[in-house]
Design a protein that fits this description.
The chain contains 11 helices and 27 strands. By secondary structure, it is an alpha+beta fold. It folds into 4 domains: 152 residues, Cathepsin D, subunit A, domain 1; 85 residues, Rossmann fold; 64 residues, ATP-grasp fold, A domain (Dna Ligase, domain 1, 2-Layer Sandwich), CATH 3.30.1490; 108 residues, ATP-grasp fold, B domain (D-amino Acid Aminotransferase, Chain A, domain 1, 2-Layer Sandwich). Helix 4 runs antiparallel to helix 5. The chain is elongated, with a radius of gyration of 29 Å. The protein starts with 12 loop residues before the first strand and ends in a 15-residue tail after the last helix.
């Protein structure tokens, strides 16, 4: 430190050449800083510095390693860019740095300061406090240190750091090929919260697959680091779409629904096996490969009428009601002739063409509607002309919906239930549920809880202590 900063007023803040501070707006509750009156600007050690957001209000994302030597502790941060400034460091090197504004807390004092972002790797402290940040009513004593109360890096080993982390600006990708109500609502709600939300056509993503630097590319460029991705994967590109999600998962991006959960829910045979393994009620279901087993297959699910369902069916298409055993055998024969995979299910008569769609987000049912078939159709899908109305579900139905989403590891799921004499029966678990019918029929905002879930999940997690090094 080159100079002594002296303020003789009785209320002056007394600082040594090294102090503990916190940057609460960035989610950094404890940092050791070097106080340097010879430096004009303040600097924060930051890596992975990347701009995002709209040109009229640019943001910057960066990673801070608050504990020197602990690269395993990485705190993701974001802030509005207020300037880009040329700064000359103590070793004479000049670089352009992004400048942000944030609150600094030291002792009982909190003040707003400007910070430049730079890579201070190898420095003993990861933050430098310069003259601009010190301002008035400050006395700096070069021979002293820790004149203000000492903090501890132990806070980063506690769950408290996650709970106390601020809701920072996030960069989020919506993987969708359609400009529909659900996609527009995801963008609208995210931008309302100040996040940067980009819609990415899943089919146009391509991947660089390697051990050291896996990447996702789009439209000729490497995609930036996203805090989270929200998959809206169409049934026609399930295989490729889940491969793209796996790539995002590989680079460490949080996906609202995992690739494994989407894959399992899309394969109807696999999905029913998952439900059965978790002892979740569903209509009696059977599957066979050989045409010689047709008679036995029908017998396994009970008497007619029966449902014959293509494994790749979506939105009620590829689902046939066979009124008699002979009709069921004819449909099965036709599907086999097309080399189509299908399953046979018991028809729940008492449901009377109605089912319940429960939207589960973050382990809670945030909305439920009743869907009723029109014109004598047994299928209640809204895409086929069914009508939706609000419904009050039972405790058993709520628990069944939550257990179903959990069985697939889905943070967001549309769980379709039938009301039967023996309790709720799960028809399907949809990993890309539409929002329009649910929001309009229930009158509830179902996208806001999804963003609550994302904001909670992307907060930094506590890191384990190292036995070989001191925490502070």
């Amino acid at each position: 430190m080159d100079d002594t900063l002296q303020d003789d007023s009785p209320n002056a803040l007394r600082l040594g050449w090294e102090e503990w501070v916190s940057l609460p707006d960035l989610g950094l509750p404890a940092l050791k800083v070097k106080v340097d009156t010879g430096a004009r600007t303040s600097a924060l050690h930051a890596t992975d510095i990347e701009t995002f957001g709209r040109a009229e209000k640019p943001q910057v994302r960066f990673t801070v390693h608050p504990i020197p030597g602990r690269d395993d502790l990485a705190i993701p941060c974001s802030a509005e860019i207020i300037d880009r400034r040329e700064v000359t460091s103590s070793n004479g090197e000049t670089e352009m740095r992004y400048v942000i504004r944030t609150n600094l807390a030291v002792g009982d004092t909190t003040r707003e300061i400007e910070l430049t972002l730079t890579d201070r790797r190898g420095m003993q402290t990861h933050m430098l406090l310069g003259r601009q940040a010190l301002g008035e009513n400050v006395t700096v004593v070069p021979g002293d240190k820790f004149c203000q109360p000492e903090l501890s890096y132990e806070v980063y080993h506690s769950a408290k750091v996650r709970k106390a982390a601020p809701n920072r600006v996030l960069r989020i990708a919506v993987l969708s090929r359609e400009d529909n109500y659900s996609t527009r609502r995801l963008v609208e709600e995210g931008e309302k919260r100040g996040h940067a939300v980009e819609v990415i056509d899943t089919a146009r993503c391509y991947m660089a697959i390697n051990a050291l630097a896996p990447e996702v590319h789009y439209d000729g460029k490497r995609l930036p680091r996203y805090d989270a991705v929200i998959p809206r994967i169409g049934a026609s590109i399930t295989a490729y779409g889940t491969a793209v999600i796996r790539q995002f998962e590989t680079v460490g991006t949080f996906s609202v629904n995992s690739s494994a959960g989407i894959t399992a829910s899309r394969d109807k045979l696999h999905a029913h096996q998952v439900l059965a393994r978790n002892k979740i009620g569903m209509p009696a279901t059977a599957f066979a490969n050989s045409p010689k087993d047709t008679g036995n297959l029908v017998g396994l699910v009970g008497s007619a009428p029966l449902i014959v369902k293509l494994l790749e069916s979506t939105q009620g298409r590829g689902v046939v009601l066979a009124e008699t055993r002979k009709a069921a055998e004819s449909v099965i024969s036709a599907f086999r002739g097309l080399r189509a995979n299908f399953l046979v299910q018991n028809f729940v008569k008492e449901a009377a063409g109605e089912d319940i769609r429960c939207l589960v987000i973050g382990g809670k049912v945030v909305a439920a509607i009743k869907r009723s078939a029109e014109g004598g159709d047994f299928r209640s899908n809204l895409h086929l002309g069914g009508k939706a109305s609000p419904v009050r579900i039972t405790k058993e139905e709520r628990e069944t919906a939550i257990r179903s989403a959990k069985a697939f590891g889905l943070n967001m799921a549309g769980v379709d239930l039938l009301r039967s004499e023996s309790g709720p029966k799960v028809l399907e678990v949809n990993s890309s549920p539409g929002f329009e019918g649910v929001e309009k029929a229930s009158g509830k905002d179902v996208v806001a809880p999804l963003y609550d879930q994302i904001e909670a999940r992307v907060r930094p997690a506590p890191v384990p202590r190292r036995r070989s090094s001191r925490a502070d």
